[in-house]
Amino acid sequence: MFPIIRQRQLSESVFEMDVEAPAVARKAKAGQFFMLRVDEHGERIPLTFSDWSPSDGWIRFIFMRVGKTTHQLSHLVVGDSLTDVVGPLGVPTHVEGVGRVAVVGGGVGAAVAYPVARAMAEAGSDVTVILGARNRELLILEDEFRALPLKELVVVTDDGSAGRRALVTEPLKELCEASALDHSMAIGPAIMMKFCAATAREFGVPITVSLNPIMVDGTGMCGACRVSVAGETKFGCVDGPDFDGHAVDFEELMSRQRVYSDLEREADADFSRECSCHR
């Protein structure tokens, strides 16, 4: 069992929890993910961690309530426990020697961008973070990013309620135009990563994208995270989750990502009807 030692709600549908898991916390590296199971009857879901402490033995997860299991997770409190926390899985993000880099985190993708930006900054890179969301209420981890030794933090929202009124591609384009980048990384919704890659390609700037949003079983067996990269079939969970953004077939990726959306909504609706917390 893995006790929950901290929990808070970041927005209407986004939650954060710290889980005591000392053995795996000692092995975790930025960009990797874990498989979680709420109880012995539940499904296993992949979640990329947002922070961790090898010395204190905890892993932090940030997740959006979109289906039955994340709905169940959102109702757990300090003192409850998860049945399984398995990992770390996936290939760690390359953080050494990336030079001048822009890390773009969109929406809940900011949770994955944070440990990546932290690890790159600790490795001596010149890190600019572009943090974006639809509005102020959906913006997460701004204070945590400001505490990192970054070159700059640029905050943008679609409606201008926090930071600049802009899409994340606008400050990314400005950095590319100024020849201020050796590399870039985008983590967030697939459509956002697609346009970040297009922006970086225009200026010949390499970009890495994290394809954790398309993972389902986390082992490569279900095939849900298959994606074409430079014409070859890759699996987001075992070959990634990081890939060359200029080589990813985003149209195929987004089509595959929609396969289970109806089932997620149905499972969440069924759980809402059954759960005593909604009565």
Secondary-structure element pattern, one letter each: EEHEEEHEEEHEHEEHEHEEEEHH
Distance from N terminus to C terminus (CA atoms, Å) equals 29 Å
Mean pLDDT: 90
CATH class of the largest domain: Alpha Beta
> Strand order across the biggest sheet?
6-1-2-5-4-3-7
CATH fold title of the largest domain: Rossmann fold
Low-confidence stretches: none
By DSSP (H or I, 4+ residues per run), the number of helices equals: 8
Q: Cα-atom Rg, whole angstroms?
A: 18 Å
Corresponding CATH architecture of the largest domain? 3-Layer(aba) Sandwich
The biggest sheet, with number of strands, parallel, antiparallel or mixed sense and barrel status, is:
7 strands, antiparallel
Indicate how many domains the architecture comprises. Answer: 2
* Percentage of residues in strands: 25-35%
What would CATH call the homologous superfamily of the largest domain? Nucleotide-binding domain of ferredoxin-NADP reductase (FNR) module
Structural class: alpha/beta
Q: Number of DSSP strands?
A: 16
**Proportion in helices:** 25-40%
Principal-axes shape call: globular
Report on the architecture of this protein.
α2 (68-74) crosses α8 (261-274). The two termini are 29 Å apart. This protein folds into two domains: 2-89, Translation factors (Elongation Factor Tu (Ef-tu), domain 3, Beta Barrel), CATH 2.40.30; 100-210, Nucleotide-binding domain of ferredoxin-NADP reductase (FNR) module (Rossmann fold). Strands 6-1-2-5-4-3-7 form a seven-stranded antiparallel sheet, with helices on both faces. Strands 11-10-9-8-12-13-16 form a seven-stranded mixed sheet, sandwiched between helices. Strands 14-15 form a two-stranded antiparallel ribbon. It has eight helices and 16 strands. The model has no long low-confidence stretch (mean pLDDT 90). It is α/β, with parallel strands linked by helices. The chain has helices spanning 22-25, 68-74, 110-122, 142-146, 169-177, 190-202, 250-257, 261-274; strands at 2-9, 14-20, 33-37, 44-53, 58-64, 81-82, 84-89, 100-106, 126-133, 152-157, 164-165, 183-187, 207-210, 226-229, 232-235, 242-244. 26% of the residues lie in helices and 32% in strands. The longest helix is centred in the last third of the chain and has 14 residues, at 261-274.
